[in-house]
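Problem 12. The chain below contains 604 residues. Write out its predicted structure in token notation.
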Amino acid sequence: MRLSKSDFKTARDCPAKLYYKKMGYPSSLKDDPYLAFLADGGYMVETMAKLLYPGGVEMGNWSNPEKAFAETVERIDAGNTALFEPTVIHRDYLARVDILVREGNVLKLIEVKSSSVHTADTDRTNPFRGKRGGITSGWRPYLEDVTFQAHVLSLAFPGYTIRPYLCLVDKACRANENTTLNRFILSRDTDGDSWAPEVTYKGDVSALIDDNLLAILDVSEEVEELLPGVIVESERFARSLTGEHVERIPGELSAGCKGCEYRLDTETGEKNGFRECWGNFAETSPHLLDLYRIDQVGGRNHNFVEEMISRGSTSLLDIPGDRLSGAAAERQLQQIDCQASGTEWIDPALPQQMRELPGPFHFIDFEASRLAIPYHEGMRPYELAAFQWSCHTLADFNAPVLHKEWLNSVEAFPNFAFARSLRECIGDEGTVFIYSHFEITTLRDIRRQMDDYNEADEALAEWLDWMTDPGNPRIVDLLPLAKDHYVHPKMKGSLSIKYLLPAVWLHNPSLREMEVFSEYVGHDNDGNLLNPYDVLPALPIGGEEEAVREGTGAMRAYQEMMFGLSSQYPKRKEALRKLLLQYCKLDTAAMVMIWRHWLDGGLS
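Solution.
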């Protein structure tokens, strides 16, 4: 069992995860829609990078590493070449290099990432290093990945000079007709065993070579600096895989375990990495890891989790109140009290604060994308494309709830039409409720784009300036209100609306009795009340049932509706449109439910 570059990356995050990965333990990453969405973008970027090397050879035989490596050696020995995904092996190490180019006695190792740099940023001579010259924490994992590959390559081909590069998306570039998303077609063989999609390019390759969105940066100095540490860690990780049995290297139990992909609800007797790491301390409920901002308890350099384990408890209810301090302490103490009593806490001042706000009341939510390969010509990589908004409005506290929405339907840059339609909906009067800063950030980006794209609409520009002014009292963010004034035990320390809504919905029957929300009332086969997001119906698309119940699903649905295979089939396109509209509508309905719950003073 060899140590691969993905194994090395996993082990650097937590050495215990290497064991769980190799032994096939259940992981939440397997079905993570956001990671899958990012991966699809990564495949398209990788395809673009490969197109820069005409005549490059796509290597295979991944299921037979020894044979694949023999083919790599044969190709390298034959002379100058460019190889895509070649396998490189040396004893206990294995690396599959994205692009490997032989030029004489030099082997260029090119690792392709969909992460971005801005080559026109004159404030930074080296994007991988901070002001003091050290490698930044954000880039270190990527550079260690390249370093591991360079190490394996140097061992396998000792007679060559290894020159490592990172190929990244360059935000200084703008997309042209050959570098927009619709030039890259993804397809999957549902009957095969490959998890990676096939990407087909349908643009002008020669034009792409001359004008693309990529920057290929030499990282030799960074690799040389990181190499000694990577060698030591590689040897340690490889030893754990080469004995008679795979060894689990214990990881540190800390607040970082809160989001571990191996922390799953599994039946007793099933493989569970979190349970094996934590032993008897894993099953405690409520668990101390569910405390709001558990990472802040005890200070930056103190492992409070270890402190609690040494006390013999991982119960949230056993956390000493005198160990909580700082900005998060008040909410942490309230959470502990609510968990102990099983009841919510609502600040008595919150209902009155809500009633002092002027109507009409608008609740808005946006859907947008930032893609490595842009939707439209002229856009930069990872530039915002705002494609949908939803708004629920009440003229006053007792008025009926009205709903309006907008979803882009034309293959053109949507942001200015998005902003104009929103302005027409919410105008200049009343209170505008948002949940988190995303909506204001989006409007700020659109305002900057007006200047960048020379969009001449003075009235819209002035409105966006006013709406995004930090001092504008019209904008009310419900998230900080939730943080400072509301706690429910079912939120488990999270402030996400995806946790807050079900907590309110499941325990306030008056909301479920309102006709405007009746479409979200549903039960499972055992008669248990469902989270409204789980009630959203799926629709048949291309022979399969599809649903949109979170933001990543919305981005994928929009992309498929506008630029994917479904864009050619009116029925599929209409089904995706309905999925997008019903999801975004629920996001603003959820805000109305929460607002109404707070307005009434919570549960009686």
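Discussion. The chain has four domains: 3-239, 255-342, 351-478, 488-599. Students who got a different answer should revisit the alignment rule from Section 12.3.
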